[in-house]
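Ticket closed. Logging final result for AraC family transcriptional regulator.
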Amino acid sequence: MAVVVPEDIGVPSWDLYELSIPLTVFGQPPPDLTMPWYDLKLCRVEAGSVAGAGSEYGLSLRTPYGLDDLVGADTVIVTSVPDPVVEEGVPMDPALIDALRRAQASGARMMSLCTGAFALAEAGLLDGRRATSHWLHSGQLAARYPKVEVDDSVLYVDDGDVLTSAGVTAGLDLCLHLVRRDLGAHVANQLARRMVVPAHRPGGQAQFIDLSVPDDDCGSLNPVLDWARAHLDEPLTVEDLARRAAMSPRTLHRKLQAATGTTPLQWLLNQRLGRAQTLLESTDLPVEKVAELSGLGTANNLRHHFLKQIGVSPSDYRRAFPRTLARA
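Final structure:
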């Protein structure tokens, strides 16, 4: 996994935070979760160059890897581009664009966090594809690269061999999603737990653009959501959740939509699918029992939602993530 270190990274900017996300998720092998882990390399435009040497805080970053090391990597991540590239249209380094194209041609999975999408778009890797970036910059991305289908309503887009995320913490969502895709829900959930973050945040960027609900509304839902997670095997309804939360179904719908970007029924389905994934990975229970314990009722219903939401059958999912991996 090769991570591009942006030019002229400054400690006061968001660049350093977004660079730290893949380092935190992919950089430190957790041997008690699964092995082997990712082999992470930081790649600069010129190997051995210094990032942030002139910053007011005096921090610097050195790496022995350069852009040539992008070619041959299984995954290439561009965490950001310099602010002048986005705000003023300053051209990107041609060497970076060439390296991204060569990496993609060699079979690498390409991924961007926040404004890193501008680099993938400049290289032509997002042409004809759906992609996202921070909602503040999505208009500029769409105007500058009209061949890209920009969606500013989502936290991230997984288009198979090309993945893009919205800004800041949405990059963490995408990185954990990649762990889930590569190594399974059990590993991703345990890693997220150690980082004290949600393994999956439903909804999209819209919830951060305009919050019409007071901040304490999200917190007021936590008890009922925790209760629902503990009773997923029961036939829960929106009315059940509303009654537990001591509010009307309409109020519950409005608050949950504002807090998570999704409806109560979709939230329940997401939770049940997550429970089913964990059971398929960590137990030998038959599919019928997995459906029952996750609250999806029958094996046919489980298969239907699995195929629709995850893209594979429960049996294929279990074969992809055997118990030996989940328990390693």
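Residues 241 and 302 are 22 Å apart (CA to CA). No further action required.
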